[in-house]
Design goal:
This protein has 93 residues and is of the alpha+beta class. Helices cover 28% and strands 20% of the residues. β1 and β2 form a beta hairpin. It comes from Subdoligranulum variabile DSM 15176.
Length: 93
């Protein structure tokens, strides 16, 4: 059964006593990223089940939103460095 975009939620749980956070997600892109990180750093990122990972709390962050000026400056730096964004695959995946 395919979940709607609305149903593809992510839940991050952590407390002050532990150094790790639990990430439960149905977001396919986030799950793939967590799978790759778990393979690369098996001592720090642990896959508990199909949709749950345990990660160091320092991997969880909330950042200030980009202003229009900051976004434009980052875009110009990337263009000057020759970066080209990836071309999306057909079918939206």
């Amino acid at each position: 059964m395919k979940l709607s975009l609305y149903e593809q939620e992510t839940i991050i749980l952590y407390n002050q006593a532990e150094a790790t956070a639990e990430v439960y997600s149905h977001d396919p892109r986030l799950l793939e990223k967590l799978r790759r990180l778990a393979e690369k750093y098996p001592d720090q990122i642990v896959k508990k089940d199909r949709q749950t990972f345990v990660v160091p709390k320092r991997c969880v962050s909330v950042r200030e939103p980009y202003s229009a000026e900051r976004r434009k400056a980052a875009s110009e730096r990337a263009k000057a460095a020759g970066y080209r964004p990836p071309i999306p695959k057909a079918g939206g995946k």
